[in-house]
């Protein structure tokens, strides 16, 4: 009804298949296992007429739902963005079903919710949906998942599966930590030698076509793709093709290369050209510039760096890093894009343009969130949602018990917390195990970022998570069991 677009039509195709597969998957599984006689947990093969009679005798049966009215009340936007409207309404009653939203992004979330409400009847003869009314929308506008593709290369098919899983959990930002010390898999148009020499292997490179495909698959699911090119540290792979970008080490570190060389003007020219390309390739308003974990040992050993500091009256390596990051942040500002930086950049006193987002990942998160927002800067939280930190089965509870507003501050300060991200660093994951490591543990973070603060019972969430895990398994996501012994039908 009203408006439509390619985003909505393609969403219909996806969710039509998902809803039809709800019963088929279970029936097929039972058939393959040779079940022929009926038992209490087996699916019946009944005719429509038999099903009609059994349902007509149920006092809750309201009739068949032949169609769903999808009422998009405003024209589609093309690209998901930070302040996109994701609110929607679902009404299912004796008269039918209506999904409505003023935004295509809200409609995508409505379709996801509707698909989760459709279940197989107890006897397996048909699909069932309960009459209900839902008014829904997210608590936070930035609900992200960081995926590191440098420590281990993650193939594009797996990345699309991750995007599917994100959509099933209403996450809306894919933070692509695409390069790091270990490999440079991004194939640059301006500097193809970066991946030619810096990737693990020629087959482990994201071509421009690969990247556009991921951005498009994310767009269709209402997910932003935010790139991160971390500097001045975490750049060893850059130096394979461009050693002049990195600082030459002396003394006990002689023969090694350290962080980027902040004393050379050519470093900033190179980065300016690369970031000019990055903002053309990745259409999102935000670029993550990193700025974390910069080791100062190499700078301290290099006489050129020390002389530069003396000439520029820089009395600490934090001040030198500040000068470097300032140049990069200003470059992004000139390109009319907004920056995200890890918390070290803020802590070291870099003068950040208004709107620069500070990403909290370690230390005292309550104190940091208070200070960042008190200074009028937006913040993102990740420190309590590191998916690579494993403890035991059911460790999603530690993620669930973390709230981005759990700090002392005014209402205005808390409004500056945009949301947060779960982080999947890839030192010990690759394409074979990344999906079960992410799912369903990220679902705990997703619910904290979507649902009202009053939704906070981990015991109640545990039941929902069991169902969501089975649902993801049915949809082809190899989510691991969340709570211990159990089963999915």
Automatic annotation (TrEMBL):
Catalyzes what? Hydrolysis of terminal non-reducing N-acetyl-D-hexosamine residues in N-acetyl-beta-D-hexosaminides
Q: Which InterPro entries match?
A: Beta_hexosaminidase_sua/sub (IPR025705), GH (IPR017853), Glyco_hydro_20_cat (IPR015883), Hex-like_dom2 (IPR029018), HEX_eukaryotic_N (IPR029019)
An example Gene Ontology CC term for this record: lysosome
> So where's the catalytic machinery, residue-wise?
293
Q: Which keywords accompany this UniProt record?
A: Glycoprotein, Glycosidase, Hydrolase, Signal
| EC numbers, comma separated | 3.2.1.52
The UniProt entry's sequence similarity note says: Belongs to the glycosyl hydrolase 20 family.
Name under which the protein is recorded: Beta-hexosaminidase
Signal recorded as keyword: yes
Task: State the taxonomy lineage.
Answer: Eukaryota, Metazoa, Ecdysozoa, Arthropoda, Hexapoda
State the coiled-coil residue ranges: none
């Amino acid at each position: 009804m009203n408006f439509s677009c390619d985003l909505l039509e393609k969403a219909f195709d996806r969710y039509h298949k998902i809803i039809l597969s709800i019963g088929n998957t279970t029936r097929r599984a039972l058939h393959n296992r040779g079940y022929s006689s009926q038992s209490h947990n087996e699916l019946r093969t009944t005719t429509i007429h038999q099903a009609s009679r059994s349902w007509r005798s149920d006092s809750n049966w309201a009739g068949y739902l032949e169609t769903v009215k999808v009422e998009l009340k405003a024209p589609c936007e093309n690209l998901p963005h930070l302040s996109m409207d994701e609110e929607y309404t679902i009404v299912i009653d004796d008269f039918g079903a209506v999904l409505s939203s003023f935004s295509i992004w809200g409609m995508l979330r409505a379709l996801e919710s509707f698909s989760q409400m459709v279940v197989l009847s107890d006897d397996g003869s048909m699909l069932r949906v309960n009459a209900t009314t839902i008014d829904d929308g997210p608590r936070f506008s930035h609900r992200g998942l960081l995926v590191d593709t440098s420590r281990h290369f993650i193939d594009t098919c797996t990345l699309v599966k991750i995007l599917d899983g994100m959509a099933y959990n209403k996450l809306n930002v894919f933070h692509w930590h695409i390069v790091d010390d270990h490999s440079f898999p991004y194939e640059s148009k301006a500097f193809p030698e970066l991946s030619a020499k810096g990737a693990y292997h020629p087959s482990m490179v994201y071509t421009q076509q690969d990247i556009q495909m991921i951005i498009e698959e994310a767009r269709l699911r209402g997910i932003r793709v935010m790139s991160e090119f971390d500097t001045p540290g975490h750049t060893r792979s850059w130096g394979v093709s461009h050693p002049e970008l990195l600082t030459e080490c002396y003394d006990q570190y002689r023969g090694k290369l350290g962080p980027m060389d902040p004393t050379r003007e050519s470093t900033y020219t190179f980065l300016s050209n690369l970031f000019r390309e990055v903002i053309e390739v990745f259409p999102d308003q935000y670029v993550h510039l990193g700025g974390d974990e910069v080791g100062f040992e190499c700078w301290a050993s290099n006489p050129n760096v020390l002389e530069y500091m003396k000439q520029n009256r820089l009395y600490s390596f934090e001040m030198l890093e500040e000068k470097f990051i300032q140049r990069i942040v200003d470059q992004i500002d000139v390109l009319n894009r907004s920056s995200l930086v890890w918390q070290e950049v803020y802590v070291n006193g870099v003068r950040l343009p208004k709107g620069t987002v500070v990403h909290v990942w370690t230390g005292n998160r309550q104190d940091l969130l208070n200070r960042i927002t008190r200074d009028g800067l937006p913040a993102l939280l990740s420190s309590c949602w590191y998916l690579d930190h494993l403890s035991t089965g059911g460790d999603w509870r530690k993620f669930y018990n973390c709230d981005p507003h759990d700090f002392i501050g005014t209402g205005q300060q808390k409004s500056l917390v945009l949301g947060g991200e779960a982080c999947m660093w890839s030192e010990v994951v690759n394409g074979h195990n990344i999906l079960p490591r992410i799912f369903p543990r990220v679902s705990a973070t997703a619910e904290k970022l979507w649902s009202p603060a009053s939704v906070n019972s981990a015991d109640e969430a545990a039941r929902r998570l069991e169902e969501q895990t089975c649902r993801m398994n049915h949809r082809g996501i190899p989510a691991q069991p969340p709570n211990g012994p159990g089963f999915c039908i």
